[in-house]
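Protocol step 6 of 9: fold each sequence in the batch and record its C-alpha coordinates directly after the sequence line. For illustration, a two-sequence batch is reproduced in full.

Sequence one:
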Amino acid sequence: MTDSTPLSEFRPVRSGLMTGALDDLASVGLAGSRCRACGETTLGANTLCPNCGSDDVFPIALSDEGKVWTYTVVRYRPPGDYKGAEPFQPFAIGLVELPEGLRVVAPVGGDPDAVRIGMTVRFTARARADGVVDFVYNPAA
Protein backbone atom coordinates (compact mmCIF):
# COMPACT_ATOMS: atom_id res chain seq x y z
CA MET A 1 0.00 0.00 0.00
CA THR A 2 1.01 3.62 -0.11
CA ASP A 3 1.36 6.17 2.66
CA SER A 4 0.01 9.04 0.58
CA THR A 5 -3.26 7.64 -0.80
CA PRO A 6 -6.25 6.53 1.31
CA LEU A 7 -7.40 3.00 0.47
CA SER A 8 -10.79 4.28 -0.64
CA GLU A 9 -9.17 6.36 -3.39
CA PHE A 10 -7.33 3.55 -5.20
CA ARG A 11 -8.28 3.15 -8.86
CA PRO A 12 -7.25 0.56 -11.45
CA VAL A 13 -4.75 1.41 -14.17
CA ARG A 14 -7.60 0.66 -16.62
CA SER A 15 -11.29 0.16 -15.94
CA GLY A 16 -12.46 -3.43 -16.38
CA LEU A 17 -8.93 -4.86 -16.30
CA MET A 18 -8.86 -6.24 -12.77
CA THR A 19 -10.99 -8.30 -10.41
CA GLY A 20 -11.00 -8.15 -6.62
CA ALA A 21 -10.92 -5.35 -4.06
CA LEU A 22 -8.29 -2.71 -4.77
CA ASP A 23 -7.84 -2.12 -1.04
CA ASP A 24 -6.81 -5.79 -0.68
CA LEU A 25 -4.05 -6.24 -3.26
CA ALA A 26 -3.74 -9.98 -2.54
CA SER A 27 -7.31 -10.42 -3.86
CA VAL A 28 -6.67 -8.57 -7.14
CA GLY A 29 -6.31 -10.51 -10.39
CA LEU A 30 -6.67 -9.95 -14.12
CA ALA A 31 -10.17 -9.95 -15.57
CA GLY A 32 -10.93 -11.71 -18.80
CA SER A 33 -13.89 -12.47 -21.05
CA ARG A 34 -14.77 -15.56 -23.04
CA CYS A 35 -17.10 -15.76 -26.03
CA ARG A 36 -19.68 -18.55 -26.00
CA ALA A 37 -20.05 -18.35 -29.79
CA CYS A 38 -16.42 -18.84 -30.86
CA GLY A 39 -14.49 -19.55 -27.65
CA GLU A 40 -12.20 -16.50 -27.95
CA THR A 41 -10.66 -15.38 -24.64
CA THR A 42 -9.80 -11.70 -24.24
CA LEU A 43 -8.17 -9.49 -21.63
CA GLY A 44 -10.50 -7.29 -19.58
CA ALA A 45 -14.25 -7.07 -19.19
CA ASN A 46 -15.74 -6.97 -22.68
CA THR A 47 -19.33 -6.85 -23.92
CA LEU A 48 -18.55 -7.88 -27.51
CA CYS A 49 -16.20 -10.51 -28.89
CA PRO A 50 -13.45 -8.86 -30.97
CA ASN A 51 -13.07 -12.10 -32.95
CA CYS A 52 -16.63 -12.81 -34.12
CA GLY A 53 -18.65 -9.79 -32.94
CA SER A 54 -20.99 -11.83 -30.73
CA ASP A 55 -22.43 -10.22 -27.62
CA ASP A 56 -22.63 -13.64 -25.93
CA VAL A 57 -19.54 -13.15 -23.75
CA PHE A 58 -19.07 -13.86 -20.05
CA PRO A 59 -16.48 -12.77 -17.48
CA ILE A 60 -13.67 -15.07 -16.35
CA ALA A 61 -10.76 -14.69 -13.95
CA LEU A 62 -7.43 -15.17 -15.71
CA SER A 63 -4.63 -17.31 -14.29
CA ASP A 64 -2.13 -15.73 -11.91
CA GLU A 65 0.78 -17.68 -13.40
CA GLY A 66 2.19 -17.51 -16.88
CA LYS A 67 5.41 -17.96 -18.82
CA VAL A 68 7.64 -15.30 -20.33
CA TRP A 69 7.10 -15.64 -24.08
CA THR A 70 9.59 -12.89 -24.92
CA TYR A 71 11.01 -9.81 -23.19
CA THR A 72 13.27 -6.80 -23.45
CA VAL A 73 15.31 -4.89 -20.90
CA VAL A 74 14.91 -1.12 -20.86
CA ARG A 75 18.35 0.22 -19.98
CA TYR A 76 17.83 3.93 -20.65
CA ARG A 77 15.40 6.36 -19.03
CA PRO A 78 12.32 6.70 -21.25
CA PRO A 79 11.65 10.26 -22.47
CA GLY A 80 8.72 12.35 -21.35
CA ASP A 81 6.73 11.96 -18.14
CA TYR A 82 8.52 8.87 -16.81
CA LYS A 83 6.84 7.60 -13.62
CA GLY A 84 9.33 4.91 -12.63
CA ALA A 85 12.08 4.72 -10.04
CA GLU A 86 14.37 7.69 -9.52
CA PRO A 87 17.22 7.51 -10.12
CA PHE A 88 16.40 5.43 -13.19
CA GLN A 89 17.01 1.68 -12.86
CA PRO A 90 16.87 -0.78 -15.78
CA PHE A 91 13.72 -2.92 -15.89
CA ALA A 92 12.29 -5.77 -17.94
CA ILE A 93 9.09 -5.69 -19.97
CA GLY A 94 7.76 -9.10 -20.88
CA LEU A 95 5.14 -10.65 -23.08
CA VAL A 96 3.65 -13.17 -20.64
CA GLU A 97 1.67 -16.09 -22.04
CA LEU A 98 -1.20 -17.23 -19.83
CA PRO A 99 -2.65 -20.78 -19.86
CA GLU A 100 -5.83 -19.33 -21.43
CA GLY A 101 -3.78 -18.51 -24.56
CA LEU A 102 -3.55 -14.75 -24.01
CA ARG A 103 -0.29 -12.84 -24.04
CA VAL A 104 -0.06 -9.84 -21.71
CA VAL A 105 2.56 -7.07 -21.95
CA ALA A 106 3.71 -6.17 -18.45
CA PRO A 107 6.76 -5.33 -16.35
CA VAL A 108 8.68 -8.35 -15.07
CA GLY A 109 9.97 -7.78 -11.54
CA GLY A 110 13.27 -8.72 -9.99
CA ASP A 111 16.68 -8.58 -11.64
CA PRO A 112 16.10 -7.69 -15.31
CA ASP A 113 19.20 -9.66 -16.30
CA ALA A 114 17.75 -12.83 -14.73
CA VAL A 115 14.62 -12.88 -16.94
CA ARG A 116 14.53 -15.77 -19.40
CA ILE A 117 12.14 -16.96 -22.10
CA GLY A 118 10.00 -19.78 -20.67
CA MET A 119 10.46 -18.58 -17.08
CA THR A 120 7.36 -18.99 -14.87
CA VAL A 121 6.07 -15.70 -13.46
CA ARG A 122 3.22 -14.76 -11.12
CA PHE A 123 0.82 -11.80 -11.29
CA THR A 124 1.25 -9.29 -8.45
CA ALA A 125 -0.97 -6.21 -8.04
CA ARG A 126 0.76 -3.13 -6.67
CA ALA A 127 -0.39 0.31 -5.54
CA ARG A 128 1.57 3.31 -6.78
CA ALA A 129 2.01 6.52 -4.75
CA ASP A 130 -0.53 8.28 -7.02
CA GLY A 131 -3.26 5.78 -6.02
CA VAL A 132 -3.23 3.79 -9.26
CA VAL A 133 -3.22 0.02 -8.89
CA ASP A 134 -1.21 -1.64 -11.65
CA PHE A 135 0.61 -4.96 -11.83
CA VAL A 136 3.89 -6.71 -12.41
CA TYR A 137 4.80 -10.33 -13.08
CA ASN A 138 7.38 -11.57 -10.57
CA PRO A 139 9.46 -14.73 -10.91
CA ALA A 140 7.56 -17.66 -9.38
CA ALA A 141 9.16 -19.21 -6.33
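Sequence two, same batch, same settings:
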Amino acid sequence: MVPQSSQSQPAQANTPDESAAAAVPASVSRGLIYLDPGHQRKGNAQQEPVSPGSRETKAKVTGGTRGVATGKPEYVLNLEVAVLLKEALIARGFEVQMTREDHDVDISNAERAEMANAADAQLAVRIHADGNDSPKAKGFSVLYPDAGVRSTQSIQPASQMAAAAILEALKAGTDAASRGMVARSDLSGFNWSKVPVVLIELGFMTNPTEDKQLSEPEYQQQLADAIADGIDSYMKNKED
Protein backbone atom coordinates (compact mmCIF):
# COMPACT_ATOMS: atom_id res chain seq x y z
CA MET A 1 0.00 0.00 0.00
CA VAL A 2 1.12 3.53 -0.72
CA PRO A 3 -0.72 6.42 0.97
CA GLN A 4 -3.46 7.98 -1.15
CA SER A 5 -1.72 11.34 -1.33
CA SER A 6 1.90 10.35 -0.67
CA GLN A 7 3.86 7.32 0.17
CA SER A 8 7.39 3.45 10.05
CA GLN A 9 9.60 2.20 13.25
CA PRO A 10 13.33 2.70 12.80
CA ALA A 11 15.43 -0.28 11.82
CA GLN A 12 19.18 -0.82 11.58
CA ALA A 13 20.37 -0.50 7.99
CA ASN A 14 21.75 -3.65 6.44
CA THR A 15 22.78 -4.86 3.02
CA PRO A 16 20.10 -6.87 1.19
CA ASP A 17 20.91 -10.54 0.90
CA GLU A 18 22.63 -11.16 -2.43
CA SER A 19 20.28 -14.02 -3.23
CA ALA A 20 17.33 -11.61 -3.13
CA ALA A 21 18.79 -9.61 -6.00
CA ALA A 22 20.18 -12.57 -7.91
CA ALA A 23 19.06 -12.91 -11.49
CA VAL A 24 16.84 -15.81 -12.47
CA PRO A 25 17.83 -16.30 -16.10
CA ALA A 26 15.54 -17.64 -18.78
CA SER A 27 16.96 -19.84 -21.53
CA VAL A 28 16.64 -16.96 -24.00
CA SER A 29 16.14 -13.68 -22.16
CA ARG A 30 13.66 -11.21 -23.62
CA GLY A 31 14.81 -8.55 -21.19
CA LEU A 32 15.24 -7.91 -17.48
CA ILE A 33 12.19 -7.19 -15.33
CA TYR A 34 12.86 -5.98 -11.78
CA LEU A 35 10.19 -6.85 -9.20
CA ASP A 36 9.81 -4.98 -5.94
CA PRO A 37 7.50 -6.68 -3.42
CA GLY A 38 6.51 -3.62 -1.42
CA HIS A 39 7.32 -3.02 2.24
CA GLN A 40 9.10 -5.33 4.72
CA ARG A 41 8.58 -6.76 8.20
CA LYS A 42 9.84 -3.67 10.04
CA GLY A 43 9.43 -0.16 8.68
CA ASN A 44 12.20 2.41 8.79
CA ALA A 45 11.00 5.88 9.80
CA GLN A 46 14.34 7.50 9.02
CA GLN A 47 13.88 10.12 6.33
CA GLU A 48 15.11 10.24 2.74
CA PRO A 49 14.53 12.82 -0.03
CA VAL A 50 11.37 12.13 -2.02
CA SER A 51 13.37 12.77 -5.19
CA PRO A 52 16.97 13.61 -6.13
CA GLY A 53 17.86 17.07 -4.84
CA SER A 54 14.52 17.55 -3.08
CA ARG A 55 14.23 19.15 0.34
CA GLU A 56 11.03 17.23 0.92
CA THR A 57 11.59 13.98 2.79
CA LYS A 58 9.54 10.99 3.85
CA ALA A 59 10.02 7.71 5.71
CA LYS A 60 12.43 5.35 3.97
CA VAL A 61 9.95 2.46 4.02
CA THR A 62 6.84 1.44 5.96
CA GLY A 63 5.40 -1.91 6.98
CA GLY A 64 2.27 -1.47 4.86
CA THR A 65 -1.34 -2.29 5.67
CA ARG A 66 -2.86 -5.53 7.03
CA GLY A 67 -5.80 -7.69 6.04
CA VAL A 68 -8.92 -6.99 8.09
CA ALA A 69 -10.23 -10.52 7.57
CA THR A 70 -7.04 -12.56 7.20
CA GLY A 71 -4.76 -10.61 9.51
CA LYS A 72 -2.07 -11.04 6.87
CA PRO A 73 0.49 -8.22 6.64
CA GLU A 74 0.70 -6.53 3.27
CA TYR A 75 4.43 -7.25 2.97
CA VAL A 76 3.63 -10.98 3.06
CA LEU A 77 0.94 -10.76 0.38
CA ASN A 78 3.16 -8.64 -1.85
CA LEU A 79 5.92 -11.23 -1.79
CA GLU A 80 3.52 -14.14 -2.36
CA VAL A 81 2.25 -12.56 -5.57
CA ALA A 82 5.70 -11.36 -6.65
CA VAL A 83 7.10 -14.90 -6.47
CA LEU A 84 4.27 -16.16 -8.68
CA LEU A 85 4.83 -13.25 -11.05
CA LYS A 86 8.53 -14.08 -11.24
CA GLU A 87 7.70 -17.63 -12.29
CA ALA A 88 5.16 -16.43 -14.86
CA LEU A 89 7.66 -14.01 -16.38
CA ILE A 90 10.42 -16.61 -16.55
CA ALA A 91 7.99 -18.91 -18.38
CA ARG A 92 7.53 -16.11 -20.92
CA GLY A 93 11.27 -15.82 -21.49
CA PHE A 94 12.17 -12.88 -19.27
CA GLU A 95 15.03 -12.53 -16.84
CA VAL A 96 13.85 -11.53 -13.37
CA GLN A 97 15.48 -9.89 -10.39
CA MET A 98 13.82 -8.96 -7.10
CA THR A 99 14.55 -6.40 -4.42
CA ARG A 100 13.78 -8.96 -1.73
CA GLU A 101 12.82 -12.60 -1.31
CA ASP A 102 12.25 -12.55 2.44
CA HIS A 103 10.72 -10.16 4.95
CA ASP A 104 13.68 -9.37 7.22
CA VAL A 105 15.35 -6.72 5.09
CA ASP A 106 15.86 -2.98 5.43
CA ILE A 107 15.70 -1.46 1.96
CA SER A 108 14.35 2.05 1.46
CA ASN A 109 12.12 2.99 -1.45
CA ALA A 110 14.91 5.03 -3.04
CA GLU A 111 17.31 2.10 -2.63
CA ARG A 112 14.81 -0.23 -4.28
CA ALA A 113 14.67 2.10 -7.27
CA GLU A 114 18.45 2.27 -7.39
CA MET A 115 18.70 -1.53 -7.44
CA ALA A 116 16.64 -1.59 -10.65
CA ASN A 117 18.70 1.31 -12.02
CA ALA A 118 21.97 -0.50 -11.34
CA ALA A 119 20.67 -3.60 -13.11
CA ASP A 120 19.57 -1.50 -16.12
CA ALA A 121 16.16 -3.18 -16.00
CA GLN A 122 13.76 -2.90 -18.91
CA LEU A 123 10.93 -2.32 -16.42
CA ALA A 124 10.58 -2.07 -12.65
CA VAL A 125 7.31 -3.40 -11.22
CA ARG A 126 6.35 -2.57 -7.65
CA ILE A 127 3.79 -4.91 -6.08
CA HIS A 128 1.50 -3.50 -3.36
CA ALA A 129 -1.97 -3.89 -1.89
CA ASP A 130 -4.28 -1.04 -0.95
CA GLY A 131 -6.03 0.20 2.16
CA ASN A 132 -8.82 2.65 2.86
CA ASP A 133 -10.90 3.93 5.76
CA SER A 134 -13.98 2.60 3.99
CA PRO A 135 -14.38 -1.20 4.04
CA LYS A 136 -16.34 -0.89 0.78
CA ALA A 137 -13.38 0.36 -1.27
CA LYS A 138 -12.28 -2.35 -3.69
CA GLY A 139 -10.43 -3.02 -6.91
CA PHE A 140 -6.98 -2.83 -8.44
CA SER A 141 -5.15 0.19 -9.84
CA VAL A 142 -1.89 0.80 -11.65
CA LEU A 143 0.24 3.80 -10.72
CA TYR A 144 2.91 5.46 -12.86
CA PRO A 145 5.14 8.58 -12.60
CA ASP A 146 3.47 11.94 -13.13
CA ALA A 147 4.61 13.86 -16.21
CA GLY A 148 5.39 16.94 -14.12
CA VAL A 149 8.25 15.37 -12.14
CA ARG A 150 11.60 16.49 -13.55
CA SER A 151 13.57 13.45 -12.39
CA THR A 152 11.30 11.00 -14.22
CA GLN A 153 10.48 12.89 -17.41
CA SER A 154 12.69 10.62 -19.53
CA ILE A 155 10.94 7.44 -18.33
CA GLN A 156 7.40 8.80 -17.96
CA PRO A 157 6.02 7.91 -21.41
CA ALA A 158 7.27 4.32 -21.25
CA SER A 159 6.04 3.96 -17.67
CA GLN A 160 2.58 5.16 -18.67
CA MET A 161 2.58 2.76 -21.62
CA ALA A 162 3.49 -0.14 -19.32
CA ALA A 163 0.81 0.87 -16.82
CA ALA A 164 -1.84 0.92 -19.55
CA ALA A 165 -0.84 -2.53 -20.81
CA ILE A 166 -0.89 -4.03 -17.31
CA LEU A 167 -4.22 -2.42 -16.47
CA GLU A 168 -5.86 -3.86 -19.59
CA ALA A 169 -4.41 -7.29 -18.86
CA LEU A 170 -5.74 -7.21 -15.28
CA LYS A 171 -9.18 -6.22 -16.57
CA ALA A 172 -9.10 -9.12 -19.03
CA GLY A 173 -7.59 -11.68 -16.66
CA THR A 174 -9.60 -11.09 -13.48
CA ASP A 175 -13.17 -10.26 -12.49
CA ALA A 176 -12.03 -7.58 -10.04
CA ALA A 177 -13.09 -3.96 -10.28
CA SER A 178 -10.66 -1.62 -12.01
CA ARG A 179 -9.88 1.73 -10.40
CA GLY A 180 -7.86 2.74 -13.44
CA MET A 181 -4.47 4.37 -13.80
CA VAL A 182 -3.14 6.97 -11.39
CA ALA A 183 -0.23 9.34 -11.99
CA ARG A 184 1.82 10.04 -8.85
CA SER A 185 4.45 12.68 -8.17
CA ASP A 186 5.10 11.92 -4.50
CA LEU A 187 6.50 8.37 -4.49
CA SER A 188 10.21 7.96 -3.77
CA GLY A 189 10.25 4.62 -5.56
CA PHE A 190 9.18 6.43 -8.73
CA ASN A 191 11.15 9.63 -8.40
CA TRP A 192 14.51 7.90 -7.92
CA SER A 193 13.97 5.54 -10.84
CA LYS A 194 15.95 5.86 -14.06
CA VAL A 195 14.14 2.95 -15.71
CA PRO A 196 10.44 2.71 -16.61
CA VAL A 197 8.47 1.89 -13.47
CA VAL A 198 4.91 1.09 -12.39
CA LEU A 199 3.24 0.25 -9.09
CA ILE A 200 0.33 -2.18 -8.95
CA GLU A 201 -2.21 -1.99 -6.12
CA LEU A 202 -3.62 -5.52 -6.21
CA GLY A 203 -6.77 -4.76 -4.23
CA PHE A 204 -7.95 -3.58 -0.83
CA MET A 205 -6.91 -5.51 2.26
CA THR A 206 -9.32 -3.27 4.20
CA ASN A 207 -12.26 -4.79 2.31
CA PRO A 208 -13.07 -8.09 4.08
CA THR A 209 -14.25 -9.88 0.94
CA GLU A 210 -11.39 -8.69 -1.24
CA ASP A 211 -8.86 -9.31 1.52
CA LYS A 212 -9.83 -12.99 1.66
CA GLN A 213 -9.80 -13.26 -2.13
CA LEU A 214 -6.30 -11.78 -2.31
CA SER A 215 -5.01 -14.69 -0.21
CA GLU A 216 -6.62 -17.39 -2.35
CA PRO A 217 -3.86 -19.24 -4.27
CA GLU A 218 -5.97 -19.48 -7.42
CA TYR A 219 -6.68 -15.75 -7.43
CA GLN A 220 -3.05 -14.90 -6.72
CA GLN A 221 -2.12 -16.96 -9.77
CA GLN A 222 -4.71 -15.10 -11.84
CA LEU A 223 -3.21 -11.79 -10.76
CA ALA A 224 0.34 -12.94 -11.51
CA ASP A 225 -0.59 -14.31 -14.93
CA ALA A 226 -2.52 -11.17 -15.85
CA ILE A 227 0.33 -8.88 -14.80
CA ALA A 228 2.79 -11.04 -16.74
CA ASP A 229 0.50 -10.80 -19.79
CA GLY A 230 0.52 -7.02 -19.46
CA ILE A 231 4.29 -6.87 -19.17
CA ASP A 232 4.57 -9.20 -22.16
CA SER A 233 2.29 -6.93 -24.19
CA TYR A 234 4.23 -3.81 -23.18
CA MET A 235 7.56 -5.37 -24.10
CA LYS A 236 6.27 -6.51 -27.50
CA ASN A 237 4.88 -3.06 -28.29
CA LYS A 238 8.08 -1.46 -27.04
CA GLU A 239 10.10 -3.58 -29.46
CA ASP A 240 7.89 -2.68 -32.45
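Proceed to step 7 once all outputs are recorded. Observation for sequence two: The longest strand covers residues 123-130.
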